[in-house]
């Protein structure tokens, strides 16, 4: 099974409004609620692709119960969330229907006690042993040490399990130094990590800092991958408009599914780029438009080459 880790799980609430105006009051035209936090979105996409998935992380309080109920309704995902005293956060995505843009409001998450972090580490060590790959996704809730992802990367590597890290800031910087197999920063996260705003230069720098493969998600410019074997770009055939929440998580799911299926890098990137665009076309995070995915997959342009055997 593929293991996804979401330390800061969230009940994702999506509001649709006709037009979003700062300082104004709004009538919401549609509301949806889903289990969220990046790793849970990755889990849903992987399960929809037919992979066995186990989802771990923290879940507490009434919001934690809601997101566990939501997970129980999602076929193909084993719930291995660790109970905690504090309530899981809510994250709000407000979709402006007129310009097709989304504004995101993310709560910080519950405070995790040292004993809860230790209980998680014990559960994680067990789960990693039966995983084919691990995804470590999203922000850290208060109380979790800033070096948490570095520790989780080291454990996965010690168990011989490939590990992908998708986070930002200091947890990313420390996690990269622990040498994960893949990182998937967006342009801002990559610039913050390396100090460079030039994506190729920044990806090469992140690779030198310890990430075996860097896959940068560059919005409409698609994906850029750099590793010791080569460099590739993958661009969808057209710009898609919709709800981009979870588009990066679909990239992670595409990369991991390609990894466990031993697809070569160009195939993995094409899948990841097509899934990401198909996620923007679906109204809520963690879901994708399957027909659009299949059509886009045929038309993603992958460029680049292997530079070494
Ligand atoms: O605060 P984080 O953990 O960085 O991001 C959380 C989040 O915004 O990311 C997902 C979309 O990628 C949403 O489902 C979720 O609520």
Notable traits:
309 residues; alpha/beta; UDP-N-acetylmuramoyl-L-alanine:D-glutamate ligase; 2 domains; 10-stranded mixed sheet; 10 helices; binds 1-O-phosphono-beta-D-fructofuranose
Q: What does it look like?
A:
This protein is α/β, with parallel strands linked by helices. The chain folds into 2 domains: 1-144, Ribokinase (UDP-N-acetylmuramoyl-L-alanine:D-glutamate ligase, 3-Layer(aba) Sandwich); 218-309, no CATH class. It is 39% helix and 26% strand. A 10-stranded mixed beta sheet has the order 5-4-1-8-9-10-11-12-13-14, sandwiched between helices. A 4-stranded mixed beta sheet has the order 3-2-6-7. The longest helix has 17 residues, at 265-281. The protein is globular. It starts with a strand and ends with a strand. The chain binds 1-O-phosphono-beta-D-fructofuranose. InterPro entries: Carboh/pur_kinase_PfkB_CS (IPR002173), PfkB_dom (IPR011611), Ribokinase-like (IPR029056), Tagatose/fructose_Pkinase (IPR017583).
């Amino acid at each position: 099974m593929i293991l996804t880790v979401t330390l800061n799980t969230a009940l994702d609430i999506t509001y649709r409004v006709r037009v979003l105006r700062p300082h104004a009051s709004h009538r919401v035209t549609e509301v949806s609620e889903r289990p969220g936090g990046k790793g849970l979105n990755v889990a849903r996409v992987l399960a929809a692709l037919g992979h066995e998935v186990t989802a771990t992380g923290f879940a507490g309080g009434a919001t934690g119960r809601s997101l566990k109920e939501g997970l129980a309704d999602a076929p193909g995902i084993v719930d291995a969330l660790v109970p905690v005293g504090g309530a899981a956060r809510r994250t709000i995505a407000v979709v402006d229907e007129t310009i097709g843009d989304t504004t995101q409001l993310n709560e910080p998450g519950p405070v995790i006690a040292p004993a809860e972090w230790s209980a998680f580490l014990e559960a994680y060590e067990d789960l990693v042993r039966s995983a084919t790959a691990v995804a470590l996704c999203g922000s850290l809730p208060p109380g979790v040490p800033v070096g948490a992802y570095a520790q989780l990367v080291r454990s996965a590597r010690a168990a011989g399990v490939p590990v992908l890290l998708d986070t930002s800031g200091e947890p990313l910087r420390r996690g990269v130094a622990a040498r994960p197999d893949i990182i998937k920063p967006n342009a801002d996260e990559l610039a913050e990590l390396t100090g460079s705003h030039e994506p190729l230069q920044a990806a090469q720098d992140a690779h030198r800092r310890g990430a075996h493969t860097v896959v940068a998600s560059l919005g409409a410019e698609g994906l850029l991958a750099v590793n010791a074997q080569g460099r590739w770009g993958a661009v969808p055939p057209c710009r898609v408009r919709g709800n981009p929440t979870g588009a990066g998580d679909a990239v992670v799911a595409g990369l991991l599914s390609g990894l466990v299926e031993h697809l070569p890098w160009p195939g993995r990137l094409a899948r990841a780029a097509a899934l990401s665009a198909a996620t923007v076309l679906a109204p809520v995070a963690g879901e994708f438009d399957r027909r659009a995915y299949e059509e886009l997959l045929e038309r993603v342009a992958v460029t680049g080459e292997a530079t070494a055997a």
